[in-house]
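Marked as duplicate of an earlier ticket. Keeping the data here for the record.
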Amino acid sequence: MRRSWRQIVTGGVGLIVAVAMAGVLVGMQGYDPVEALTALAGGALGGTGAISTTLRNGSILVLTGLGASIAFASGAINLGGPGQLLFGAMSATLVGISVDLPAIVMIPLLLVVAAVAGAGLSGFAGWLRVRFGMTEFISTLMLNLIVEQALLWVVNRPLKEEGASFPQTVPIAETGELGRIGGISTAVIVMALVFAITYVIYQRSLVGYEWRITGKNSLFARIGGVEVEANFMRIMYHSGALAGLAGGILVMANTHRFTQGIGANYAWDGVMVAVVAASGLIATVFYGLFFAALQTGGVGMEVVSAVPSELTQVLQATIVMLVVAAREVFVIVLRRRDARSQLRATLDGAPT
């Protein structure tokens, strides 16, 4: 409870200061800060279409952020989100263009395929550590490059759509597309269900408890009987599955095919979300949606007020730095307060 309260305070302070700084930056460039920030909010939340886009992009950021948060909080360093997202996206695309089943079967099938692909790639990096002692920090990073270049060749050569001027595959079957309900992308429903499952596993199950303990002190966990290596593999599988699932949703709800550059910065932004959320699951959802709103609103801001949308990237980076800095300062202040309280209690109880 205390940790959640601390995250709310530090996050709130960081957001307020970051938005104020954004207003100052806009003003220094000769634009109207109020008009720009109003346009930013309108571009993200001004109408059903904008809200749907924000939630759709936010779903991808939340899933990649959850994958990173689960890994970081459990003592694993999975930086392979970009490769796992791309591998999940391509796997879903391959199945989506190979079969055409009823939507009630097709949609779950593509989601599972994407998740399994991401889990498999992440699990391979985990196996390299367990079997050969290779740190997952390096293996996940290198696998990103391998997967990216391999899929770049695939989409430019054997799977390139005939007659297309841009490297892309043919579209998946329509029954595999994630549509909208009431104008809102159903991707948010998938994200909500996956978050609920992840939350229950991590916060309410024995294996989740073991993950949390391992992340805090692996030696203590090992002495306490926790199977550290086995749990490490489970963590890598779960983390990779979330990133792969994000790639599947990216294809099914957005492009409906695999295209060159489809991954954009979603996975790296997910790492940023995990960092600013301090690997808290609920905080990851909040920041994932918030950063998606910034990115979506940045386009509208540029159209309405002529302020470059790149400002949103500056704002994101500023928020990360300020929230993390505020969190560290807050921890120092609390520790000093607790130390003074303990010292006072010791002195008051000392014999005269």
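See parent ticket for discussion. Residues 53-279 form one domain.
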